[in-house]
Predict the structure of MBOAT family protein.
Amino acid sequence: MLLLAGSYIFYSSWSWNFLILLIISTLVTFFIGNKIKVSEGKAKTHWLRTGIFLILIQLLYFKYFNFFIENFNEILKMFGRADKLGLLKIIFPIGISFYSFRMIGYLLDIKNNKLKELPSILDYSVFIAFFPCIIAGPIDKALPFLNNLKIKREFSASQFTDGLRQILWGVFKKLVVADNIATMTSPLFESYDKLNGSTLFIGAVLYFIQLYSDFSGYTDMAIGLSKLLGIKIQPNFNYPLFAQNVADYWRRWHISLTSWLTEYVFTPLSIQFRDYDKYGLIMAIIINFLVVGFWHGAEWHYIFHGLVSGIMFIPIIWKGKMNKKVKSQNNIIPTKEELKNIPVTFIMFALLMVLFFSTDMKMAISYYKEIFSFSFFQLPNYQFKKEIAFLILFTLSIEWIGRNKEYGIKELFLHNNVVIRWGFYYILVFLVFLFYIAPKGFIYAQF
């Protein structure tokens, strides 16, 4: 009851009106989940479709309604019609994409008999509204989270300090690294049409690191806060900047969304298309990533981001290396394979990020044209802050050393003298105060 009250107060601090929407959605999907459980045959399928339809219709209204209107107006324009449909002034409910996927996953798990015992309305409400995760995930699945609530939670000093340590690392990545990089990338993107290719390329690389630091910083804080409450939630990142190929990257980036889509979208599609061999697998992958793009937002540049992400899998599928996993090395010095694969993968996804941060396709096309022009070989014509390069190098070095741990500083100096350990923590705190600027909000809160 305390967790639910706290979560609702947290959400209502943004909007009381949309708290009502969250509560109604929770009650309706809980009722439909019970109906799916007790129904048989076609009735079970009917209730599932009803539940998914109700969840998607509110998501489509709040997130995609104006997108469809804008594109319908463009079609009218193509046929010489001057009249236009007016756009609605729609406020986007924070976290709706994340809690909608939780609800859909819950209903599908009941239909597929993965939830043998249904939760109480109280436990289900906590699962949907759990405050550390509601703004930007992770998108936990119902069974492991609900099992957390069944277990008697007792205070653990080691878990509590581990949670604080992870929160500290998340705060550092968000407030020191991500927000300070944003002071360079935001004005750079605003004046991108006046900058040369080398500058725009550096901007794309910086944004890739900014997005990772912002989103993984949030995740570290969410997981750390959950540990303080005795609740374990799933990880969302596994050092994706050190990925060695496309498949390896998507196993490491936004893990909860990727695993959700793999289970509920890609796997059913791959079974449906299995008669088409590799072509069927490619179709399933591309549709899956189109959903990823559309989930991020009702803009064509997000949809193309998803499409290109799917196309990037084609060489791996064709070579039959789709399920080949990269072995993690414990060495501080990277191996020859890592030195060859990591930079290539990093640059590929940094360039892909142009489709992510662009305001529209016109900006993305212009941005790419300049990067792949002769001006790429010119010196940058933009002032970059040297201290940001130090902070990035410092952060990536720590993450490289701790890349086989749950988060970068989990065991760093943990077994050293207390002066060394606490000295390191104080350095991080000092850097937070030194580089603190007014927070710009979390990037993924807009999704």
Q: What stands out?
A: DSSP finds 19 helices and no strands in the chain.
